[in-house]
Amino acid sequence: MVGGSRTCCSRARIAGSVFFVLLACAGAWGAPPKFSQLPKAQQKLVDDVEKRTFEFFRDSTNAQNGLVPDHWPDDRVGDYFSSIAAVGFGLTAYGVGVERGWMSRKDAVARTLATLHFFHDAPQGEAADATGNHGFFYHFLDMQSGQRYHAQRWDELSTIDTTLLLGGALFAQGYYDRNTRDEKEIRKLADAIYRRVDWQWASPRTPLVAMGWTPEAGFIHVDWHGYNEGMLLYVLALGSPTHAVDAGAWKAWSETYDRTWGSFQGQEHLGFGPTLGHQYSHVWIDFRGIRDDYMRAHDLDYFENSRRAAFAQREYAIHNPLQWQDYGANLWGLTACNGPRKEKVEPGEVDRYANDVKTFYGYIARGAGLRDTLDDGTIAPTAAAASIAFAPEIVVPAIVEMQHRYGDNVYTKYGFVDAFNPSFHFTDRPLRTGRIVPGDGWVDTLYIGIDQGPIVAMIENYRSDLIWKVMRKNPYIRAGLERAGFRGGWLEKSAK
């Protein structure tokens, strides 16, 4: 087995060490290696990571309605709730599983149909316990009933999480292309779900799209504005044949780009601290060789931009300005993830974190960039692993190192746990999740769906271009990109 044995991985690490030193030294200017060019031991490990992470979606999903849990397995709560974004990643993972032989096409079709039937038929409206409204869906849903999770005021109708759900639905629409009753039904349902989304309604400050809405408070007073994971949102909002946003939306969205353009850790690029902003949209859109006005002016594309961001994150870890334990060339990666801190202090409870010299956090979006850095020593494996398509020469060594150094503490049945913090060794502080491992620090015991999903998808895009190939044929993606001003590359070619 590739996973649990430090001895096995140690041999693989030694065998590939010279290879990876050369690759890492090549830096951003070297041609990134193809999967087939990796040493066999590294190919085997990457394959194992992808397979185990895929199995998270296969095993954790409610097969009756397709809902994927946000955190899992959460024994502290025992009351799982679904993240609709994780469902989008799950819909994508099933196709990957079919291609890799880890799931039969019949089972993938059945799971996908159950999911799309649920979202197509689930109640929409302004009731506090509905599943969605105006085609959008609540961020978190009850795993069994599919209703808004506890109908709590903080659970918003989320435009970005609906977007990630749609990414999976549209992938399913393109992937299941056979002339069978069930696959035709998949295509019909996915189309109807996408066409129903009313982007114009979600644009109270036109042409920008609001982050969300609740029946209790109305629209959130913040819009998707500036470079982050919202690229896919605007592509889908511009490509809609029924409720598209104004054509000026992309220009309005990108008008603040200059605030985060610059050189960080030796890499000139459009910055965003958490790596998820450089990864999520790329799961479903192949940005290689296509450019909008901003990227044309900077002689760059968004794929190369994300590649540079990965190198900058690695360089940040090498410099390690806050002197966290174990940071280095092969241990890096900051993004949204769990952390050791218990956020809520109960009445009468002493806040054991109050006098810490360095601040620790629970779940939060960590990141490092030109404008903002939030770093508490917590490493999220997805931050590096899901960047493999951009920069395999620095990501594969990180995957190898994490598995080798921490073994079964961080690499378990469903791949890498969500996060770990080698600097957190306190045993007198309450933990939000996870446990303290002597010598290794805090390690999580949970997985998060939106961190698992990009690992599966981006490893597969690196290996075969699977998701990109399917989505390049999608007329809505093409229309949205063209309305946003993208030109060149595959957009100039036939959609066939």
CATH fold-type name of the largest domain = Glycosyltransferase
Radius of gyration: 22 Å
Q: Would you count the extended β strands for me?
A: 20
Q: What strand order characterises the main sheet?
A: 3-4-6-7-8
Overall mean pLDDT stands at 92
Would you tell me the structural class of the helices and strands?
A: alpha+beta
- The level 1 CATH classification of the largest domain is Mainly Alpha
- By CATH, the superfamily of the largest domain comes out as Glycoside hydrolase 144 (GH144)
Number of helices: 17
Distance separating the two termini? 41 Å
Q: Strand portion, in percent?
A: 5-15%
Any overview of this molecule?
The chain folds into two domains: 1-57 and 271-343 and 357-461, Glycoside hydrolase 144 (GH144) (Glycosyltransferase, Alpha/alpha barrel), CATH 1.50.10; 62-255 and 465-496, Glycosyltransferase. The protein has 496 residues and is of the alpha+beta class. The strands form eight sheets. Strands 3-4-6-7-8 form a five-stranded antiparallel β-sheet. Strands 17-19-18 form a three-stranded antiparallel β-sheet, with no helix packed on it. A two-stranded antiparallel sheet has the order 1-20. The chain has 17 helices and 20 strands. It has helices spanning 6-15, 17-26, 40-60, 84-100, 105-121, 159-175, 181-196, 231-239, 249-254, 276-284, 293-297, 302-319, 381-385, 392-406, 449-464, 466-472, 475-483; strands spanning 71-72, 81-83, 132-133, 136-138, 140-142, 157-158, 212-214, 218-219, 261-264, 267-270, 336-337, 364-365, 367-368, 373-374, 411-412, 415-416, 420-421, 435-437, 441-443, 447-448. Helix 4 (84-100) packs parallel to helix 15.
